[in-house]
């Protein structure tokens, strides 16, 4: 973190009693979904309440949804979700893997930005739900002298329930600032050549380490209700394009990769095929006994990958007769991923500052 008390000066030509201000710089604010502060009941309840009360995530009428959420779901789900988080918790740092990985990504991107722009750029991260909050990090950047902020939701694909709600929170945070910084939001990078390259390299490394090549690669993306697609959300199409570009980069045929969607919640139909059902079908009906699963929509491993894919979805595959299940980790802080993210940032900083 920057020391906001260092380098304070009066603006040129200002009177001597003018408040001192920090030197102007550009902020790069990375944003991810969020994480509970702990695995206990109340930490989980606070986190789930914030997450599931977001109208971008659950858009049912509050008159119907809130009583159900407060009286039924939040009386039970914190226990099961807490147990799931506990199974993957980073006990040494007392934080979730998502927090650990996001910190590492931020540190590496900070170093890359310093190499290119010197001390002109401040890099930090925030979470949409939980801590560190988006408003607190926007405030810190303004106090540090960031007259411009590039907001970067760490979702390769745009969805109303991910990118849009992160952007909403960012702009709500700007509403509180007396002197608003100039702001830009990074576009989805689902087709960026360096992102596709990083995905391809992760698959190639994983396959090279296996004794037996998988029969098929399952690209499992986080799901959304099918209704969102019908209402204009581009998420489904962007996921399909990532899978196609990855397949082409690897030089594979159409049958070598399957696109699926996970994490279904609630009674309505979501994007299909559902990962948990498709892996069972691949084993039972298609005789695919050896599969690998990758999660291209996640920039960092989290509860949906480490617990849902590596436990629930793996169990579904094995119960259907599958024999070898390999989860290929998210790109996390891999150097190729940092290359991609840094390139996206550099492209979006165009015109704001020169290279050092």
Fold blueprint:
Blueprint: E1 25-35, H1 41-52, H2 62-88, H3 97-117, E2 121-130, H4 134-143, E3 146-153, H5 160-174, E4 182-185, H6 193-208, E5 216-222, H7 226-230, H8 235-250, E6 257-262, H9 275-284, E7 290-294, H10 303-319, E8 324-328, H11 335-348
Parallel strand pairs: 1-2, 1-3, 3-4, 5-6, 5-7, 7-8
Helix pairs in contact: 1-2, 4-5, 6-8, 6-11, 9-10
What's this, in brief?
The protein has helices at 41-52, 62-88, 97-117, 134-143, 160-174, 193-208, 226-230, 235-250, 275-284, 303-319, 335-348; strands spanning 25-35, 121-130, 146-153, 182-185, 216-222, 257-262, 290-294, 324-328. The chain is α/β, with parallel strands linked by helices.
Number of helices: 11
The main pleated sheet reads as: 4 strands, parallel
Helix content: 40-55%
| Radius of gyration from the alpha-carbon trace, in angstroms | 22 Å
Could you explain how this protein is built, in words?
By secondary structure, the chain is α/β, with parallel strands linked by helices. It has two domains: 25-188 and 337-348, Rossmann fold; 193-328, Rossmann fold (3-Layer(aba) Sandwich). 46% of the residues lie in helices and 16% in strands. The chain has a four-stranded parallel beta sheet, with helices on both faces. A four-stranded parallel beta sheet has the order 6-5-7-8, sandwiched between helices. α4 (134-143) packs across α5. The longest helix has 27 residues, at 62-88. 40% of the residues are buried. The model is unreliable at 1-5 (pLDDT under 50).
């Amino acid at each position: 973190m920057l020391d906001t008390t260092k380098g304070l000066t009066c603006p040129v030509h200002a009177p001597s009693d003018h408040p001192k201000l920090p030197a102007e710089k550009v902020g790069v604010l990375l944003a991810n979904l969020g994480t509970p502060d702990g695995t206990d009941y109340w930490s989980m309840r606070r986190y789930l309440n914030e997450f599931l009360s977001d109208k971008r995530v659950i858009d049912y009428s509050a008159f119907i949804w809130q009583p159900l959420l407060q009286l039924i779901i939040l009386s039970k789900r914190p226990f099961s979700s807490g147990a799931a988080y506990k199974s993957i918790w980073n006990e040494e740092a007392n934080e979730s893997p998502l927090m650990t990985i996001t910190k590492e990504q931020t540190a590496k991107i900070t170093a890359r930005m310093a190499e290119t722009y010197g001390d002109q750029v401040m890099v930090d991260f925030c979470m949409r739900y939980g801590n560190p909050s988006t408003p607190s990090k926007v405030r810190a950047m303004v106090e540090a002298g960031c007259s411009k902020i590039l907001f970067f939701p760490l979702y390769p694909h745009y969805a109303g329930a991910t990118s849009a709600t992160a952007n909403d929170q960012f702009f709500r945070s700007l509403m509180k600032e007396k002197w608003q910084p100039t702001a830009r939001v990074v576009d989805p990078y689902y087709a960026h050549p360096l992102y596709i390259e990083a995905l391809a390299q992760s698959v190639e490394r994983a396959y090279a380490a296996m004794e037996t090549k998988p029969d098929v690669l399952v690209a499992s993306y986080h799901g959304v209700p099918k209704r969102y697609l019908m209402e204009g959300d581009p998420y489904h199409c962007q996921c399909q394009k990532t899978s196609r570009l990855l397949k082409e980069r690897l030089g594979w045929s159409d049958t070598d990769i399957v696109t699926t969607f996970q994490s279904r919640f609630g009674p309505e139909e979501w994007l299909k095929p559902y990962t948990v059902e498709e892996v069972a079908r691949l084993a039972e009906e298609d005789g695919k006994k050896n599969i690998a699963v990758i999660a291209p929509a996640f920039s960092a491993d989290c509860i949906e990958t480490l617990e849902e894919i590596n436990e629930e979805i793996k169990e579904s595959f094995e119960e259907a007769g599958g024999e070898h299940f390999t989860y290929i980790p998210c790109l996390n802080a891999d150097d190729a991923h940092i290359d991609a993210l840094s390139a996206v940032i550099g492209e979006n900083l165009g015109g704001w500052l020169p290279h050092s």
